[in-house]
């Protein structure tokens, strides 16, 4: 399935993302991959790049470079987090940001309002993209890819694998009619291996799906399915940001394989 168009979009001057369109009912989102902070806002941010990188989802965009519609956010979630509702999308309090103080108390109200406006514009675009997909294909399926930390205390902390699955699949907000697609994704993953070992995938253990999934599914209801895929950060050193490229490549192949399996399903009949 060839990409038909490629479009680079800059939302005003503070928020950046790219969209690649394909003739497909599938979407791949990596909305926390971004690390950029606009110079206009950067002067007010207290955190350095290493602190920000730890809570971002680096390398997720490369994992979902799949032959489907793609949307990758380049702006750091510490500037604007579009996976949260608008009033929480700028981390103004430590409890919104893992206990971190993100902004100087001099963040101008004009910048804050501009960020809120760009959040609204972003979702207007998302609505347009999904509606177009429904109009053309009759439905949509979205891979909403993220990652999460499992070594909160230190780099030497053993990973509690019972509490932290390799893949947390957030499905909570989907209409039950899409259960066959959800099961199809899980079955496809369980039939594969990661570095020669079985893969631990579980539903809604750590995360149920963020605001992106909630917004899309509330607006379009039973017209599509959002699979919020959270990879445990086994593919990198979550403290230094060092990537483990063989694992990143295996996750990409994993997603490509599950995509092919889902494309074989009779989704049109769901």
TrEMBL record:
<protein>
    <submittedName>
        <fullName>N-formylglutamate amidohydrolase</fullName>
    </submittedName>
</protein>
<dbReference type="GO" id="GO:0016787">
    <property type="term" value="F:hydrolase activity"/>
</dbReference>
<dbReference type="InterPro" id="IPR007709">
    <property type="entry name" value="N-FG_amidohydro"/>
</dbReference>
<dbReference type="Pfam" id="PF05013">
    <property type="entry name" value="FGase"/>
</dbReference>
<keyword id="KW-0378">Hydrolase</keyword>
């Amino acid at each position: 399935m060839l990409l038909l168009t490629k479009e680079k979009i800059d939302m005003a001057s503070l928020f950046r993302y790219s969209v690649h369109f394909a003739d497909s009912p599938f979407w791949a989102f990596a909305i926390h991959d971004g690390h950029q902070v606009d110079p206009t806002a950067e002067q007010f941010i207290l955190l350095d790049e290493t602190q920000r990188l730890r809570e971002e989802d680096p390398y997720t965009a490369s994992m979902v470079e799949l032959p489907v519609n793609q949307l990758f956010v380049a702006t750091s979630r510490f500037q604007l987090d579009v996976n949260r509702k608008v009033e929480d999308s700028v981390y103004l309090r430590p409890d919104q940001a893992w206990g971190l103080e993100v902004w100087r108390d001099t963040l101008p109200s004009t910048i804050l309002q501009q960020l809120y406006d760009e959040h609204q514009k972003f979702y207007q675009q998302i609505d347009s993209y999904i509606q177009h997909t429904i109009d053309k294909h009759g439905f949509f399926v979205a891979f909403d890819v993220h990652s999460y930390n499992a070594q909160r205390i230190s780099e030497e902390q053993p990973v509690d694998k019972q509490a932290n699955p390799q893949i947390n699949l957030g499905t909570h907000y989907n209409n039950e009619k899409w259960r066959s697609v959800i099961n199809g994704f899980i079955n496809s993953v369980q039939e594969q291996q990661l570095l020669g070992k079985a893969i631990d995938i579980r539903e809604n253990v750590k995360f149920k799906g963020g605001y992106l999934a909630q917004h899309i599914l509330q607006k379009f209801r039973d017209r599509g399915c959002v699979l919020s895929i959270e990879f445990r950060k086994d593919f990198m050193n979550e403290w230094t940001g060092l990537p483990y490229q063989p694992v990143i490549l295996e996750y990409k192949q994993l997603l490509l394989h599950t995509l092919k399996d889902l494309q074989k399903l009779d989704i049109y009949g769901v």
